[in-house]
Design goal:
Elements: E1 4-9, H1 15-23, E2 28-34, H2 38-48, E3 53-54, H3 57-64, E4 68-71, H4 78-87, E5 91-95, H5 102-114, E6 119-122, H6 129-139, E7 146-155, H7 159-164, H8 175-191, E8 196-202, E9 213-219, E10 224-230, E11 240-248, E12 252-255, E13 261-266, E14 269-274, H9 280-298, H10 306-325, E15 329-330
Parallel strand pairs: 1-2, 1-4, 2-3, 4-5, 5-6, 7-10
Antiparallel strand pairs: 7-11, 8-9, 8-15, 9-10, 11-12, 12-13, 13-14
Length: 335
């Protein structure tokens, strides 16, 4: 079987994880990299042994004729790059967030559809080991009906993020749009689509234009979720603290800050479902990118196809509307 030929557009910070993941995806081959900053493109090419290097995506796609394009750029470029890819007949794996507005997100999906190519959003946190195992446990009925979910993601300061992605400082929408969107998607993956959102936002670090503290209440069909995330937390033993609890009518799933996933079925009765996964960050990229290639080959639907990801994006934008009005906002159901 011939390899699926992939061209990467965007050689910034996150591209290193895309390229490491592609190295672990069977039957995938990187045939070119591109960035408007030639130094970045050459650095990534040298790091990962890619011979074809470009600063113009149109020139790259014409020269290497890939089967698919991995778009690892900022959201404001996604529509134009999707349209470009369709003109070259290349399928698209597009970095999240998909777009800056719902209208633009719909236009991206429509461009791919009209061009006869397939589009998947690289919303990959749902491929983290513990979220896959949580989904399996819920589907197996091990916790009964999910009733409440709680996610905490607390980061001690913005220094590292601003160093590697300085443009974060000027983004008017930051933590919810850029990072908490992952958890909105994971909650949808675990307990169903979001029906309404109540959200409060704060900006603590005076170096940024957008928010660095988010508190959300999300309602689903049977479940109420609480999401608390901050990039300005203090006093925790680790620089990043992540924990998840999903309580059901029969038992509770608990992800501890050390990455241990347990099923709590009674007083003092805990079953360790999975120990900490030291490779959880990269494994999410590998899982999503393998899914992309496998679905291209089989014709199976993408998990994070535009129709699905639009609901994640809609819930995020509902969060901003809620924060602006101080009221809960209903999320529109979509097919």
């Amino acid at each position: 079987m011939t390899s699926t030929r992939i061209a990467l557009i965007g050689c910034g910070h996150i591209s290193q994880f895309h390229l490491r993941a592609w190295q672990q995806v069977p039957d995938a081959e990187i045939v070119g990299v591109c960035d408007v900053d030639g130094a970045k493109a050459h650095a990534r090419a040298n790091e990962f042994g890619v011979s074809a290097v470009f600063t113009d995506p149109d020139s790259m796609l014409a020269a290497v004729r890939p089967d698919a394009v991995d778009v690892a750029t900022r959201p404001d470029t996604h529509l134009a790059l999707t349209q470009l890819s369709t003109r070259h007949g290349a399928h698209v794996l597009c970095q999240k967030p998909l777009a800056a507005t719902m209208e633009e997100a719909h236009a991206i999906g429509a461009a791919a559809s009209a061009g006869g190519v397939r589009l998947m959003v690289n919303e990959n946190w749902r491929w983290r080991t513990w979220y896959r195992l949580m989904r399996m446990a819920i589907e197996a009925g091990r916790i009964g009906t999910p009733l409440t979910a709680r996610v905490e993601y607390l980061v001690e300061g913005l220094n590292v993020r601003l160093e590697r992605q300085p443009y974060f400082a000027t983004m008017p929408r930051l933590l919810l749009y850029e990072a908490a969107i992952h958890f909105v998607d994971c909650l949808r993956f675990l307990v169903g689509d979001v029906q309404s959102v109540y959200c409060r936002l704060r900006s603590v670090d005076d170096r940024i234009a957008g928010e660095d503290v988010v508190a959300m209440i999300l309602t689903h069909k049977t479940t109420t979720s609480i999401l608390e995330t901050s990039w300005s937390s203090r006093g925790y033993p680790d620089p990043v603290t992540e924990s998840v609890r999903i309580e059901g009518s029969a038992a509770t799933l608990s992800l501890a800050p050390d990455g241990t996933l347990s099923l709590l079925a009674g007083s003092g009765d805990a079953e360790v479902i999975a120990p900490p996964d030291p490779d959880f960050y990269l494994s999410a990229f590998v899982g999503a990118q393998r899914h992309f290639v496998d679905a291209l080959r089989s014709g199976a639907p993408f998990e994070t196809r535009p129709e699905d990801n639009l609901q994640t994006l809609d819930a995020v934008f509902a969060g901003y509307r809620s924060a602006a009005t101080g009221e809960a906002v209903r999320v529109l159901a979509r097919p």
